[in-house]
Design brief:
The protein has two domains: 156 residues, Aspartate Aminotransferase, domain 1 (Alpha-Beta Complex); 258 residues, Type I PLP-dependent aspartate aminotransferase-like (Major domain) (Aspartate Aminotransferase, domain 2). The protein is 41% helix and 17% strand. The chain contains 14 helices and 15 strands. A seven-stranded mixed beta sheet has the order 4-10-9-8-7-5-6, sandwiched between helices. A four-stranded mixed beta sheet has the order 1-2-3-13. It has a four-stranded antiparallel beta sheet with strand order 11-12-15-14, with helices on one face. Helix 10 links the parallel strand 8 and strand 9. It binds pyridoxal-5'-phosphate. Pyridoxal-5'-phosphate binds next to helix 5.
Length: 426
């Protein structure tokens, strides 16, 4: 057999390690809007968006146009060497979107920018400790693997990670069975125990969390929880870091999820949807903190690549020009329709989320995580041309992450496939 007759999956398996696990075995050759086309010419409705990356749809014409124009001007200048217009323009825009008293540092990936956040927090506070949250996901480098607490498999054989990291409880009322208020109180009491038994608050540089947990299960915390964390950080001089790598850039119906909660972090980390697929990430932090990050104490070759910055400016223009509104409208419609589905399928325990970051959690008759229904639904949907992803520490949550530009017809098509798949699983 020649290589041409083999699928991309087969060819990849021969030359790539299994370490990068994939949700599907699909080989694709083209993307447009909410659709991907496979190597054998089949069209797929993509409600995974490359894991919340192509937030304005695959190959949005404006993103393509701006990226192409930038390629003609300058592909790489090197932000350690020179300044170039789109780099400064994007920093100015991100500062403006975050209240106007911030400075911005660009990197390439989510993990890299979270590393930067930890370094900044340590640099500014001169403290060793970091508090992260159970069920969190922050990346795959050694430091961000340490921060991550959603799956022991991610740490397996890598132990001896970053020291002085402690894990707090993230509110998850569906699982604890407590009321929202009691769940928040339980989590705050556990944080207080960390301070009393393990590390004093004046030794803590940063508290880092996702304002809506992604990988952990699309869990939306009560507003009061984030507000309380803000005041604890203020009281003890701890930096509050929001990892908005998945929640940012319109995913939740606002540019950033912190805007839903009225709680602004000291440090905000952004990646994924920032440039609709071009590798780019940004650390946005209060200017008074950034001014203490002395020259040469952090860096990188590719951060703030001109083509990625040009794409990001197009993404922001599209979100502000209507995609955010569409995200809110379509998110509300999708959730309403999913609630109708829930009424027919008792294994659907909860529909939750913000904007188009929607989780559907399944539990069995005994109230235990129902990963079987979720993986069955994901596989059946795939056969029928709908790409879905799962999440949750028990793999019992379907995450719906269509582009913010998705249409009602596309949501209806997805709902039809989901309903059909669930009925076949009965
Ligand atoms: N933080 C969150 C919340 C994420 O969802 C991810 C990726 O899934 C990361 C960090 C890591 O980003 P990257 O894969 O770009 O390093």
């Amino acid at each position: 057999m020649t290589t041409q007759t083999k699928s991309l999956y087969e060819r990849a398996n021969a030359v790539m390690p299994p370490v990068a696990s994939r949700a599907t075995t699909l080989g694709v050759v083209k993307g447009q809007g909410a659709y991907l086309w496979s190597e054998d010419g089949k069209k797929y409705l993509d409600f995974a968006s490359g894991v919340a990356v192509t937030n304005v749809g695959h190959n949005h014409p404006l993103v393509v146009e701006r990226a192409k124009a930038q390629i003609d001007e300058l592909i790489h200048g090197g932000h350690n060497v020179v300044y170039y217009p789109v780099y400064v323009e994007l920093a100015e825009k991100l500062n403006e979107l975050n209240g106007g008293n911030c400075k911005v540092y660009f990197s390439n990936s989510g993990a890299e920018v979270n590393e930067g956040a930890i370094k900044l927090a340590k640099k500014v506070t001169k403290r060793p400790g970091i508090i992260s949250f159970k069920r969190s996901f922050h990346g795959r480098t050694i430091a961000t693997t340490t921060l991550t607490a959603s799956n022991s498999g991610y740490r397996m054989d890598y132990e001896g990670l970053l020291p002085s990291v402690y894990y707090a409880e993230y509110p998850y009322a569906l699982r604890s069975g407590l009321s929202e208020e009691a769940e928040v109180a339980r989590c705050l009491a556990q944080l207080d125990e960390i301070f009393r038994f393990l590390i004093a608050p004046d030794q803590v540089a940063a508290i880092i969390l996702e304002p809506v947990q992604g990988e952990g299960g699309y869990i939306v915390p009560p507003k009061g929880f984030l507000q309380e964390l803000r005041s604890i950080c203020d009281k003890h001089g701890i930096l509050l870091v929001f990892d908005e790598i998945q929640t940012g850039f319109g995913r939740t119906g606002k540019m950033f999820a912190w805007q839903h909660f009225g709680v602004q972090p000291d440090v905000l980390t952004l990646a994924k949807g920032i440039a609709n697929g071009f590798p780019l990430s940004a650390l946005v932090a209060k200017a008074e903190l950034m001014d203490q990050w002395t020259a040469g104490t952090h860096g990188g070759t590719y951060g703030g690549n001109p083509v990625a910055c040009a794409a990001s400016l197009a993404v922001i223009e599209l979100l502000e020009g209507g995609a955010l509104d569409n995200c809110n409208k379509m998110g509300a419609y999708f959730v309403e329709e999913l609630h109708k589905l829930k009424a027919d399928y008792p294994q659907i325990a909860e529909i939750r989320g913000l904007g188009l970051m929607i989780g559907m959690e399944c539990l069995d008759q005994d109230g235990k995580p129902d990963a079987k229904t979720v993986s069955g639904l994901k596989d059946k949907a795939m056969e029928k041309g709908l790409i879905l992803l799962t999440c949750g520490t028990d793999k019992n949550v379907i995450r719906f992450i269509p582009p913010t530009t998705v249409t009602k017809e596309e949501i209806d098509e997805a709902l039809r496939i989901i309903r059909e798949s669930l009925s076949e699983l009965r």
